[in-house]
Amino acid sequence: MKNLSKVFLITALSFCLVKGVYSFEQWNNLSPEEARTIVKLLDDVYKYYIVFDTINHVDNQGKTPAATTTKQVFKEMEKKGWHSARLISATDKALNKENMPKDEFEKEAVKVLREGQVFFEKTETVEGKKVYRAATPVPVVLKECKMCHVYVKDEEVMGSIIYALPLGQ
Questions:
Q1: pLDDT tens digits along 56-81
Q2: Where are the alpha helices (DSSP H) in 27-148?
Q3: Rounded CA separation 9/5 (Å)
Q4: How many alpha carbons lie under 13 Å from residue 70 in its C-beta half-sphere?
Q5: Residue 80 near residue 44 (C-beta atoms within 8 A)
Q6: What domains, with CATH codes, occur in the chain?
Q7: Strands 120-126 and 84-89, how do they pair?
Q8: pLDDT of 101-138, one tens digit each?
Q9: DSSP state letter for 53
Q10: If you average pLDDT over residues 1-18, what whole number do you get?
Q11: DSSP at 114
């Protein structure tokens, strides 16, 4: 349960980072339909984390890396059509080479996030379709992070979450 609380805290903080450094007052102009969509999205995220954290805790006695659960949630969110997301390394010491930045957006995002920017975004055309891409930092926030990522310092950006959402044409 302690790990699940951390997951919720980190998810909530990540959500605040995604929205920038604004207060919740910006939500005052949401329509009921927009609010409903946001609640459905958040509901899926939280429920997937509960399910995967429980499965990983039981199957692996709590020894599953947070990145594994995160990638499972990302996969399910993409299947449901919410968005795609990718967890990438912001260092040259990725534990999994698949997590290295793959394109110019990801490389630029890592650079600016490591320099202290808290949000990076661009609208691009990918395979003929407009896509909104955003990146947020994943800093070291728990001492447990350094159990696997021994080379990072407290509060250092060790990774990034890359989001891609399709835009209307």
A1: 766 777 677 778 888 888 898 889 88
A2: 32-60, 66-79, 104-114, 145-148
A3: 6
A4: 19
A5: yes
A6: 1-82 (no CATH), 83-169 (3.30.450.290)
A7: unpaired
A8: 999 999 999 999 999 999 999 999 988 888 889 999 98
A9: H
A10: 47
A11: H
